[in-house]
Amino acid sequence: MYRAGSSIQEHAVEFVQKGGVLHFQWFTGVTMKLVRFLMKLTNETVTIELKNGTVVHGTISGVDISMNTHLKVVKMTVKGKNPTSLDSLSIRGNNIRYYILPDSLNLDTLLIDDSPKQKVKAGSAAAGGAAAAKGRGRGGRGRGRGRGRP
User: Fold this and answer.
1) 22 inside domain
2) What CATH number did the domain enclosing 87 receive?
3) Which one is predicted more confidently, 28 or 60?
4) What is the model's pLDDT at position 25?
5) 78-86: which pairs have CB atoms within 8 A and are 24 or more residues apart?
6) Where are the alpha helices (DSSP H) in the chain?
7) What is the distance between the alpha carbons of residues 50 and 27, in angstroms, rounded to a whole number?
8) Residue 10: which pLDDT band, with cuts at 50, 70 and 90?
9) pLDDT tens, residue by residue, 125-134
10) pTM beyond 0.70
11) Is 70 among the domain residues?
12) Residues of 3-17 as b/e, b for ≥16 C-beta within 10 angstroms?
């Protein structure tokens, strides 16, 4: 089981908060956002435990950036009730406590970070472009009335 915010030694994974975003780091030293990893699990059969105790078993059809998970061919067991079969189910990301992944899942191929890196343009400052590099702040030339006139 993988739980956000905890360190799990038997799976050699550590969860780290960097700039308000949850990352996890495997024993290989590879680090990536947890949600990016989950987005690669399309067509994998998983078990998901929700915060209210409901257990959902199904095949992932997609995970979005908010960790909302869409499943197909689902068996849902509400805590204390009989299981229910559903064709599809969408789960809001903040209601998920655990993703229980199959043992047969090849983690090495999923952990390759193949997302394109954003290139930083040379010669421009962080937000203000060339004007910020010249110490003019956000405005540059022509901002405001009556400045520099006799």
Assistant:
1) yes
2) 2.30.30.100
3) 60
4) 55
5) 78/53, 78/54, 79/52, 79/53, 79/54, 79/55, 86/58
6) 34-39, 107-110, 129-133
7) 27
8) very low
9) 555 555 555 6
10) no
11) yes
12) eeeeeeeeeebebee
